[in-house]
Write a structure and sequence with these properties.
With about 230 residues, the chain is an alpha/beta fold. Helices cover about 55% and strands about 15% of the residues.
């Protein structure tokens, strides 16, 4: 199952979940994919924040429901105080309603505990690389249930917003929605990475969104990505 690139430094991950069995399972999955090193584990949100400050990992993978400090509050604190650490939420399907708050707090990934192992590995790699990653089931749940308003109305609104983008900007938005990082988008479109960064910045500005995950949701709603 290993698909890691051993020529690169491993992705340093902080894993936080109050269930030791869940942590062990996630750690095993990430280890099987190669290229990932779980440098610290936390059993609650407060410990996760402390370990993030101590280890400065590339990314933190946080359960939502934890004692002392929940994963949402821990994510906000890590993003505020450890800016070099990207944050993804590790969630169950029933917790999609929390995604809106996490988006506002700066998390850029949402992965399902019960999801495909390859999906978990891909999500960790994408978020660590600076991309956004939504588990397809989470994305569909958020679009259908979590953002308010009728589905058709949201889709029409998203398509209207996307229509203001240039063809190239729409193409970039679709790839952001698919979870690609800037280097991956650059390779796909045969552009230099600096140009892709400029396109992504312009897309976020035109859509009026704060981060890549919010842009990804617009891409899903507008039909640019199939969840």
């Amino acid at each position: 199952m290993s698909t890691g690139d051993t020529s690169r430094a491993p992705i340093r991950v902080l894993l936080a979940d109050d269930e030791a069995m869940v942590r062990a399972g996630v750690r095993a999955i990430l280890g099987s994919g190669g290229g990932t090193d779980v440098v610290a584990e936390a059993g609650d949100g407060r410990e996760a924040v402390e370990l993030a400050r101590a280890h400065r990992p590339d990314m933190a993978l946080l359960d939502i429901r934890m004692p002392r400090l929940d994963g949402l509050a821990a994510a906000e604190e890590i993003i505020r105080t450890v800016p070099g650490t990207a944050v993804a939420m590790l969630t169950t399907f029933s917790e999609g309603a929390y995604v809106t708050r996490a988006l506002g707090g700066g998390a850029t990934g949402f992965l399902l505990k019960s999801g495909d192992p390859y999906e978990l590995i891909a999500g960790v790699r994408a978020v660590a690389a600076g991309a956004a990653f939504l588990s397809p089931k989470v994305a569909r749940y958020v679009i259908d249930e979590g953002l308010g308003g009728g589905r058709l109305t949201r889709e029409a609104r998203a398509r209207a917003r996307v229509s203001a983008l240039s063809p190239r900007e729409r193409e970039v938005l679709g790839l952001v929605g698919a979870g690609l990082s800037n280097p991956e988008i650059a390779a796909r479109l045969h552009l230099v990475e600096g140009t892709v960064k400029a396109y992504v910045s312009a897309v976020l500005d035109r859509l009026g969104v704060r981060n890549r995950v919010q842009a990804a949701i617009v891409a899903y709603e507008a039909g640019l990505v199939e969840p």
